[in-house]
Each structure stands twice: as C-alpha cells, then as structure tokens.
Design a protein that fits this description.
Strand content of chain A: 25-35%
Order of helices and strands of chain A: EHEHEHEHEHEEHEHEEEEE
CATH architecture of the largest domain in chain A: 2-Layer Sandwich
CATH superfamily of the largest domain in chain A: Tetrapyrrole methylase, C-terminal domain
Number of domains of chain A: 2
Structural class of chain A: alpha/beta
Shape of chain A: globular
CATH topology of the largest domain in chain A: Methyltransferase, Cobalt-precorrin-4 Transmethylase, Domain 2
Oligomer: homodimer
Number of helices of chain A: 7
Number of strands of chain A: 13
Strand order of the largest sheet of chain A: 3-2-4-1-5
C-alpha cells in the first residue's frame, strides 16, 4: 500500500466547524502527527497511532510525517484552523524541499480548514468584509523591523488587519510595540477586536477603540482584528456588530 | 416563534467542505436567500422556500432576509466561500444599519466557510503560508486608484497577495492594469497562481512567472494568488508545489 501525507485543518476549536473532507481523511489515517492539543482533538481508535509533539518542533514533526509516509503509512498532519495560514503546511514543504529526493514522489495534499481570523470575524460581524491583510506578529522567524514595516504599509493601504500570535510569554513586549505603531500609523480611534478562544464554549469578544487597546488584552489564544478606516459598529440589544462595508 | 437570520458560507463548491454547523442550520431554515447558483446548492425539502436572486442585488436580498426574519421566519443567507470575505455578511449589516430600528433586535449570526483563497492555496501547496493580503479587484464599489494604491503598497510590504474577482466581462481591462502594476512593483519573476473552479471536479491550477501572466488566464471563476519574494516552487513528479516559507 502506498503511503501519503495529508496536512489537514481542524478549524478553530468547535468540532462542528471541521469539514467532512477532513473527518473522512482522519478515518483513513494510520498515523496522526501534530502539536499535543491538536492531536488530542482526534479520537483514538484501533489502527491509529497518535504522535503528539511540542510546539516549535515543526520541522522535526514534518520530517517524521514524510518518513512514515515513505514507509507506506497514511499520515495526517493536523493543524488548528487552516494548515496553510501560519501553520503546518509550509513547514512540511520546507522539510520536503530539504529532504531526500524520494519524498517528492509521495502523495501530499493540503485540506483547508476554517482559519481563526474567519471564525473571529464571523463571531463579531464582518470586519474582514473588504480588503484586508493577515500578519503573524511573532518575531520568532522574522525580524521585528519587517513586522513594523508591514504594519505601517498596511495602515497606509487602509487594509483591515488580522493578527495571529499577537503575544506570548516569551515575547511580551512585541504586541505593545505593535499597538504603538498602529496608533501612530492609523491616527484614529478605529475599532480593534480581541477574540479569545474563538468558536469554543469559553469564547470572549471585546471591541475597543484602538486608542484604548492595551497589550494585556491579547495572549496566544487571542485573534486580533483591527478595522480599516471604514470599519463601523452597529449597536444592538444583543451587543455590538463590527463590520466593514463592501465599498471600503 | 422568533425569527433569525444566519449568513452562512457554503465553501468553494465541494460539498465535503461545507461545515456540519452550516448543514445543521440549513436543516432548521424556513427560507434560503442568495445568488441563484448558491441557492441551487441547497436541497429542496418541504417547509423550505428557496429564494434565488441575481447578483448585484445584495442589498435588496439582505432587506428581504431581514424583513422575513422580522416576521418570524428562520432565514439562511447563503454565500459561496466564507460570507465575511467579499460576500453577503457585510451587505446584510449595511442593510441592517440603514433599516428599521426593530431589525436590530433580531438574532443575526454569521457562520464561517472555507473561502476560495484558502482552498486555492491548499490545492497548490501553501502560498499563503506567511503574511499576505486579500484584495477584491472589482472596481464596482471602489475607485480603481485605490486598488492600484493597495497593490503597490502590498508589493512594498512584500505580502503574498490573494485576489478575488480578478476579471469580468464588464471589466475586462482591470486585471490587465493590475498585472502591469504588479510587474512594475514586484520587479521579478515570482510565481502567480491561477486557480479556476477551485475544489470542483473541473478544477484547474496554473502557475506561471509573473512576467508571463496574461489577463485571459483569469475570469470570475478564477482565484489569483501572487507570491511574496520568498514564495518558491518544489518540482515533483506529481506537479509543482507552490509555497511560502514560515520565515518570509
């Protein structure tokens, strides 16, 4: 039997957001590889080996997945959200590029999932309803200067902005700097959304003017979305709705 | 019984990409509203009225949905892809904002879906694996000058770029201008992906250097993704894999 690797997105956390395509592929797998909490979302069964690993070992995990597939195993690499957005798909392809030539003959597929920014936007209204950009605020793999440059240009382009990995214990100061840059570059009180544990039962949404945002409003489980200059709020008895009109 | 409006994403076309959350909501609906080809994806059943309408009537359709919900009906507004990305969610909120105060008491929810750029990226590899922007190239609702400004700033920021609505019969020249701007602003032969009918049985993928891209490679059923300066191709016996590394 020939092996394969499928890099599959589990969505942001709500099991009802996992696509049938991803479920069916998990049912065919012999091995599931991924960061511990994502692997924990896959139900154990006979014939399936779960390989949870720590974060920051994405390349090791990718090589493991590819080498198992080369041995004929059917391997699903699980990501939260969508595997193509700051997740495992790029890591697997980096490992493929640097690995043995024989790996290139493997069947490798990516199955999309609901990425956190889309779930966060949906929960709050439609803040990404017009042109936007998506930035990973972690400076683990790129210099801070590049992040700051992108923030300034995105503000000049008047994009709405979605931020992944805004803040972690190892990088507590980065998000504070990002907020400072955004306040300077945007120069107004446009709304900013902090969506924590999106789609889960303990989801929280908080919308404040950019001028009132503070670093501790975000952590690694928070998706942050800053509106464009056109993004508005509709106040309703059920809470505020944040949206960007189609003409923005 | 109290009515509601749910704006739901049907994903890019493959029925196995429709989330269980969206399916369950469709099962509860009394009315489904949307552009004809999207409404046609919902199976008829007793107790469900399908209201297909033409495109370019998004606000009329939104008012219709809200007014039916105000009468106690359970209305699903269907979008292709994700309703929050250049789709019906913003239109419904525009109609809500301009409509009768009573509408604001309605239960209105947005359910995310797999948006075309994520399905296209997954089919080709992982070209959106690092910072990127998402631009609607239609100038129906915004001036061309704003599109061109965003393209230039996005190139300066070295974002990968995903383009919706690249070209239509009524706007054949816009995409040609966009390609010209991109060639000037990027100044290299970075890869550009044309993904047509993404996730459907007749899906086609084409990757060419930006210098060789021509306007007729895109139509309204095509998702276009331009790489950042770091986006690369891995040649394999199964075809090229397009990806952007995590450090881009």
């Amino acid at each position: 039997m020939s092996g394969w690797v499928v890099i599959a997105g589990l969505g942001p956390g709500n099991e009802d957001m996992v696509t049938p395509e991803v479920r069916a592929t998990l049912d065919q797998a012999t091995d599931v590889v991924g960061y511990f909490p994502y692997v924990a979302r896959v139900a154990p069964r006979d014939g399936l080996t779960l390989h949870g690993s720590d974060n920051r070992v994405e390349l090791d995990r990718s090589r493991h997945a590819l080498s198992m597939a080369a041995e004929g195993r059917r391997v699903v690499v699980v990501s939260s959200g969508d595997p193509g957005v700051f997740a495992m798909a790029s890591a697997v392809f980096e490992a493929l590029e640097a690995g043995p030539e024989a790996w290139r003959a493997l069947e490798i597929r990516v199955l999309p999932g609901i990425t956190a920014m889309l779930a966060a936007a949906a929960a709050a209204g439609a803040p990404l309803g017009h042109d936007f950009c998506t930035i990973n605020l972690s400076d683990n793999l790129k210099p801070w200067a590049l992040i700051e440059k992108r923030l300034r240009l995105a503000a000049e382009a008047d994009f709405a902005m979605a931020f992944y990995n805004p803040r972690s214990r190892s990088r507590p100061e980065g998000f504070e700097r990002a907020l400072k840059v955004l306040r300077e570059a945007c120069g107004d009180a446009r709304p900013i959304l902090f969506a924590r544990n999106v789609s889960r039962v303990d989801q929280t949404l908080r919308i404040v003017p950019l001028t009132e945002a503070t670093p501790e409003m975000a952590d690694m489980r928070t998706m942050v979305i800053v509106g464009s200059s056109a993004t508005r709020i509709i106040e309703t008895p059920r809470g505020p709705i944040l949206f960007t009109p189609r003409s923005a």
